[in-house]
Amino acid sequence: MSCLGRQAITWLPRLSARATVLALLCAGLALGCTPDPDGYVAASAEDSAAADRAIERGEHEPAIERLRAIVEREVPASVAEEDARVIRQDAYDRWARVLMGRGEVDEARRVVDRGLALGEREDLFTANLLTTRGRLHEARGRDREAARDYHRALVIEEALLERALGGSDE
Amino acid sequence: MIDDDDIDEHELREAEALARALERGSATDELPDDALEAAALIRYSRDGGALAKGREDVLLQDVLAAADRVGRREARRAPGWRWLFGALGLAAVTALLFLIVRAPEIPAPTALPAPGPRLLEIELARLEDAEAEPRFDSEMRAYRGEVYAALEARYGAR
Q1: Structural domain boundaries of chain B?
Q2: Which of A95, A140, A153, B40, CA to CA, is 20 to 30 A from B5?
């Protein structure tokens, strides 16, 4: 057997054995780092309900803390992107409205923009964010921008209402 | 004169090591440094450090024998468990690569409940009248509960 062959017989199993250890480590790491989809939705539901209770009691800071937790929670790959968007846009809207209620218009605007940056769809969550941004424009005296956002929200809501009343599926 | 009985085991080993060093030109661990230096000086003064032809042949045989031993050791086969473990490792790495390279499936969005006409009417009303906000909050909270219920039905609840 050639020298190279003899070397291969010696080193191949050693190399493979080390690859096994590495593969097992990677697999363990991957499993450990993957967020749990059940945990994501359930924890977001819990934070959402707690935020609603805090808003009702007028406790702004605990509410913001819960809403921030929702938008900052890592989304597992097994959760549909659109589902995560709905959860997050809903939280961004409430967060912005709490800030607006405290007079923090600029910060509220940043929060709304982060929510709309997730994507605009023909649903209530996008419409809510557009309405809130319209309010913020109004608060800053930017009536034209406010009217534009209100109009976009109105278009979405009318389409949803028409669908709800059975007028059209589209 | 030193009596043989006065020489202990350790000294005897050192003496033997010194004799070997003088004879072969190589030292073992038993030989202390000062004795090694002395042996080297004696050898050098004898022949200037040159090896005799006979010694060269003997040393060459020693070196070749040692090289042969090393070669046999390298060629020794790996134990079976290492082959098995190695094969498992390669299989695991292949499986991992397959999982990584495979295009991830994009999960479809959940069919969420549509907002009811009542909520939408309040939503439209609040565009014109800020007084509608409290009613909107209440209706929206109920709708939010339905949305989360649908999501938990799909992804699981705590």
Answers
A1: 7-74, 117-155
A2: B40
Banded pLDDT at B55 (limits 50, 70, 90) = confident
The model carries a pTM of 0.61
Residue A133 is predicted with a pLDDT of 97
> Which of A7, A10, A83 has the CB atom closest to B109's CB atom?
A83
Q: How far A75 CA lies from chain B's nearest CA (Å)? A: 12
Helix, strand, coil % over all residues of chain B, rounded to 5: 75, 0, 25
Residue A25 at interface with chain B, using a CB cutoff of 8 Å: no
Same domain, A26 and A50: no
Chain A window 93-122: which residues touch B at a Cβ cutoff of 8 Å? none
**Of A52 and A21, the one with more pLDDT:** A52
In a domain, A157, yes or no: yes
- Of A83, A39, A106, the C-alpha closest to B156 is A39
Residues A26 and A73 in one domain: no
Please count the structural domains in chain A. Answer: 2
Predicted confidence at residue A170, as pLDDT, reads: 45
